[in-house]
Amino acid sequence: MAQDPGHVAQAGGYKTIVYVICAVAALGGLLFGLDQGFIANSLETLTEHYQFGVEGGESYSAILATGGIFGALLSGIFARFLGRKKSLVLAGFIFTAASALSALLPPLPLLSACRFALGFAVGIASFIVPLYLSETAPAPIRGSMGTLFQLMITIGIFLIALSNVFIARTFVTPATSLPLMFLTVTLFAALMFAGSFILPESPRWLMLKGRRDQAITVLRRTLNSQAEVDAEIGEIEEALHGPQGAGFRIVFRGYFFKVLLVGVLLQVFQQLVGINMMIYYSPTIFGYAGMTGLLAMMTVPTVNMLFTFPAIHLVEKWGRKKLLYVGAVSMLITMLAAGFAFQSIGSVSDPSLISGAPKTLLLISVIVYIFGFAVSWGPVVWLVCSEIFPLEGREVGMTITTMVNWTFAGLVMANALTFMKTYGNASIFFVFAALCALAIVFVALFVPETKGITLEELEFNLKKGVRLRDLGNRA
Ligand code: BGC
Fold first, then answer.
1. Are 11 and 141 in contact (CB under 8 A)?
2. Cα 378 to ligand 1 centre (Å)
3. What is the pLDDT of residues 322-370, one digit of tens each?
4. Of all atoms in ligand 1, which is nearest to the CA of residue 276?
5. Maximum distance among all alpha carbons in the chain?
6. Angle 320-326-328 from CA coordinates, rounded to 5°
7. Pocket test for ligand 1, best of 36, 272, 302 (most atoms within 8 A of CB)
8. How far is the CA of 465 from the centre of ligand 1 (A)?
9. pLDDT value at residue 11
10. Is the CB of 304 under 6 A from ligand 1?
11. Which of 279, 280, 375, 413 for a ligand 1 pocket mutation test, highest count of atoms within 8 Å of Cβ?
């Protein structure tokens, strides 16, 4: 979107409500991360308390993804009929209720239902938060708010890893430590829930519902001058006269189907490079190699968070495709290296006897692997999926691609450890290495470079029938 000079001149001088909007939205991203990162350093405690084996642990972990699929599916409907604000209130309520109920350590079926509900809320938040921000935050900060969401996910994963380690070490009995772990999530959830009540409704949604006066009232609260309010109202009106959401039938239009396939496969590969095996199970996997302690518990979340920062800058400087290549090649090499490390370890009955060399190789591989993901496939895939769809099909495209993301995330979460148990610890790393190689071929053949081209130009090329990988070239 073009920035009007009035906005730019006032950058830095926003009203308090703008900061509230950003903070509540950031909490939405944080909760995504807190729930996604919850398992890694609580699995041992959960397993001890609930007495589930490897498969039970995997099912409990993965049910978040099933909830995510449903949340993503219904979020478009919630966004349209309830409005953006009420959808955020709903997500905040579910986050709070489900994590508070989990803290009571209910029987396993109810605990699993709560994790499903948390996934449902994550699915809603991951759709509504970016949408709400793009419609409500003042223009100059909209772009950075989009990347802030991704950053908050990794900060959430890091924070919960850290607090779960701290809690598990301080309160050794699961009956005490588990409730505290869940209450940490509840605390942030309650903040989001309470905060979402003071949010203004999205002016764009109000205009869509014909409530022009209310939209103007909201814009007066967020913007600094009447001129800005008038300009924004004009822009929304123009957009509302343009192409509107086309519904699911758009999937059958050739041009849309082609680009949908790119988005879907990007999300498939984002998960099939194996990231959530690391996010969920790295302490367990390090344990198989005889590594325990802080290094095993904190390496993945720390590296993941730190390397998301440079991605924000590099994605504009290097472009999306170059980053995807750098990421996939790093992940391919390091997955092979981790596989060799486990092969040289072989099957030992006492992991504490494993020598230093394969452990070091494994540790370095994991660090470089996470760097490879965090700097590229993590943020870039979400970004490209928000860019490639023509306006009238953007909601449908993003709903489908988000559901695909969760489906394949769930597949990895539900099977990674069992796969290692069945086919040997090294095997899964070689499978993921092969999938990284496929991802590279896919990027080379089908993914367009979307850096520095307007969404309108992309759409024009798409409808003209330009080859997928050339969509980002100027007409
Ligand atoms: C992925 C998640 C993953 C996270 C790790 C996101 O982009 O979609 O599945 O857990 O990155 O940072």
1. yes
2. 6
3. 999 999 999 999 999 999 999 998 877 777 778 888 999 999 999 999 9
4. 10
5. 73
6. 95
7. 36
8. 32
9. 45
10. yes
11. 279
| 3 state SS of 104 | coil
- Ligand 1 atom nearest residue 279's Cα: 10
**Residue 428 and residue 411 in contact, taking contact as beta carbons nearer than 8 Å:** no
Q: Which two tokens stand for residue 108?
A: 């396993």
**Which token pair is 103?**
């803290």
Ligand 1: does its nearest atom lie under 6 Å from the Cβ of 302? no
| Dihedral over Cα of 87, 91, 92, 93: its sign | positive
Residue 276 Cβ inside 6 Å of ligand 1? The answer reads yes
Tokens describing residue 412: 């990895």
Residue predicted with more confidence, 463 or 475: 463
What letter does residue 2 receive in the DSSP assignment?
P
- In the predicted structure, residue 2 carries a pLDDT above the cut 50: no
In the block, which residue shows the tokens 């995504």? 32
3-state secondary structure (DSSP) of residue 449: coil
Q: Which DSSP string do the residues of 151-202 spell out, in sequence order? A: HHHHHHHHHHHHHHHHHHHHS-SHHHHHHHHHHHHHHHHHHHHHHHHTSPPP
**Alpha carbon 33 to chain centroid distance?**
8
Question: In this structure, what token pair is assigned to residue 441?
Answer: 């071929």
Amino acid in position 441: V
Q: Whose CA is nearest to atom 10 of ligand 1?
A: 276
CA dihedral 281, 285, 291, 297 (to 10 degrees): -10
